[in-house]
Design brief:
- The chain is of the alpha/beta class.
- The protein contains three helices and nine strands, in the order E-H-E-H-E-E-E-H-E-E-E-E.
- The N and C termini lie close together (9 Å).
- 31% of the residues are buried.
- Bound molecules: guanosine-5'-monophosphate (5GP).
- The site of guanosine-5'-monophosphate (5GP) has 20 residues, from strand 5, helix 3 and strand 8.
């Protein structure tokens, strides 16, 4: 399958994404206003969600980036998490918002939670745009979820297939994956 030849169907529209981002941003503002907050973007998939979300959080925050890779370009999780970029500053005693694009098996989010918690933050709030509850392989408690979706492969709004489609402004379902 040529990466740029997928048959796509809009699954979650720009308008619906915008409303979910506003809702989560308002909730995070209420929860964390006045605290020392650092928002951690999990690269690469959450960069668009993260950039929209932090603009909806009405309190002082600093930004950090954590690069991990678990799919290695395919469509099913390898279960192995590889760190490609570490945080650039300590997060000790700060209120951390961890922003993921999608929780599938839950392995990546659990790995990230442990990695953040080992650095002694004041608190950890987990956020994901998408969650596939039927795909979970390990229990994974999430504080804020944009959308729960069924167990199928999606691209767009930061999510890729072999590196492509991240720039779609909406989430699309892929109809012609074997
Ligand atoms: P997990 O460790 O929960 O199985 O997988 C998390 C990572 O797998 C996500 O951060 C994302 O990179 C990738 N992933 C899981 N499901 C999908 C999907 O439907 N589409 C895309 N593009 N990536 C996915």
């Amino acid at each position: 399958m040529n990466a740029k030849n997928l048959d796509l169907q809009v699954y979650i529209s720009e308008e619906k994404i915008k409303k979910a981002v506003e809702r989560i941003g308002n909730d995070l503002t209420t929860k964390l206003k006045g605290k020392k907050v650092v928002a951690v973007c999990v690269l690469k998939g959450s960069f668009l969600f993260y950039s929209d979300l932090i603009r909806r959080i009405d309190t002082d925050i600093t930004c950090e980036f954590f690069g991990v890779s678990s799919y290695h370009g395919g469509t099913s999780s390898s279960g192995e998490v590889k760190v490609t970029l570490d945080l650039s500053s300590p997060i000790e005693n700060q209120h951390v918002i961890l922003v993921e694009d999608i929780v599938d098996t839950g392995l990546t989010m659990n790995y990230l939670k442990k990695a953040i918690e080992s650095r002694n933050p004041a608190s950890l709030t987990t956020v994901t745009l998408l969650e596939k509850p039927d795909a979970l392989k390990v229990p994974c408690k999430l504080d804020y979820v944009g959308f729960q979706i069924s167990n199928e492969f999606v691209v767009g709004y930061g999510l890729d297939y072999q590196g492509y489609y991240r720039n779609l402004p909406y989430i699309a379902q892929v109809l012609n994956l074997q």
